Predict the 3D structure of the following.
Amino acid sequence: MGFRTMIWSGLLVGAVTLSVVDVAACPMPRRSMGVMTLAQRVDRAEKLLAQGKPVAALKMARAVLDTPKQDPTLSYFSPPLKPADRQRASRIAGLAAWQLGDVNGTLSYLQDADTTPTVKETRAAALLALGRLAEARAELQPLIASESLSPQGMVTLARLELAEGSPDAAERTVRQVLARRPKHQEARKVLGELERSRAAVRVNG
């Protein structure tokens, strides 16, 4: 090997070595090549639910929840899910399941969710649908005490009061909703049911 050949070989080896060092020193972005972390998938599921796409939201949230907590493949691109994000994924899955009419699925997912007012109201509605009145009342009671029921939560309360045999209380509750939201469809529906029920009693009585 000649002198010039030795010089070129050394330069090439040095260039290769430098390029390897440079690449290793530069951290790769979290979303390199389109890969989303589990937390980003939870964010995406939440957006899908807000966009009125419960099927897609449930599918993505379930995929996140079904990922083992200590999955060795999560490494750099998708670190293990934080407890708060896992609870959020459970909430999204539960709310999506409720929108899709899966009552048992709703309760199953929401038992691991963060305890927001929306979660408690949805759990109460699901328990009421299963005829578990005392448990539904227990879910709503803290919200009733703090006067933090949403209009939808108040409709659930009215349905619960009706199921408990208190139509007058149910009417008062639903009229409170209509005073705030005159066009609330479910509140109008409950009031219509009450009026028809009372009309039938008068006719038959």
